[in-house]
């Protein structure tokens, strides 16, 4: 059993290493951002499920139930892979707040379903910014299992974007990619 002093020493080493990893990003640190985004996304999906109103709200709530289950599976799979790689995971609300880049909006409960869907599209798109960075870092570090999991997550997110965009009557990348000014 670890003494309080040993626990504190380990925790302070973890905090110091996390600071180093986030200033010179590593795959593990970047995937910590991915995990924080998945955690924030879970809260947003639940909020939408609780408050969705409209003609097709039951179908939308069923879709959200599926997305929530998949989100939980992806979060657990990502955590397990990081642990396999000897990484320390973000686990506290403070860490999720610090590392997460998805925004939370308490007024979302009053939004119409198309606005909620558009928000999910934006969240998956934002999440992919961190997933793509994690892929590059994992490949550079030759951490191929991490890279493979992140490639899979990127594909999952892209599929969700296409499905949600179609519900809005849009093409998969419509309104998401910056237009070339050339």
UniProtKB/TrEMBL annotation:
Q: Per its UniProt entry, which superkingdom is the organism in?
A: Bacteria
Q: Which Gene3D superfamilies match?
A: 1.20.1260.10
* Entry-linked SUPFAM superfamilies: Ferritin-like
Q: Which GO terms describe its molecular function?
A: ferric iron binding
List the InterPro entries hit by this protein, alphabetically.
Ferritin-like, Ferritin-like_SF, Ferritin_DPS_dom
Q: Specify the signal sequence span.
A: none
- In this chain the Ferritin/DPS domain maps to 44-172
Instruction: Kindly provide the name given to this protein in its UniProt entry.
Output: DpsB
Identify the species of origin: Latilactobacillus curvatus JCM 1096 = DSM 20019
